[in-house]
Design brief:
Helices cover about 35% and strands about 0% of the residues. It is flat. The longest helix is centred in the middle third of the chain and has 17 residues. The chain is mainly alpha-helical.
């Protein structure tokens, strides 16, 4: 992850929670033989700035992203 979005729910979590989530993702990728990572990076719409799901980003009332 190169940058951090100020409006991303995941990027604004406290450090320990981000660390736990990253280890959970790593273990899930390891247990599924990489299929989870293929799904995350290949079939979901991700933020170009931080790489998290676009649904984790705050949106305005008109549907545009707050970033």
């Amino acid at each position: 992850m190169a940058e951090v979005c100020r409006d991303c729910r995941i990027c604004t979590l406290p450090g320990i929670q981000r660390w736990i989530r990253s280890w959970g993702s790593f273990l899930l990728t390891l247990c599924t033989g990489g299929i989870y990572r293929l799904y995350v990076k290949g079939f979901r719409k991700n933020c170009p700035k931080c790489g998290h799901k676009m649904s984790d980003h705050k949106q305005r009332a008109d549907g545009s992203f707050a970033d």
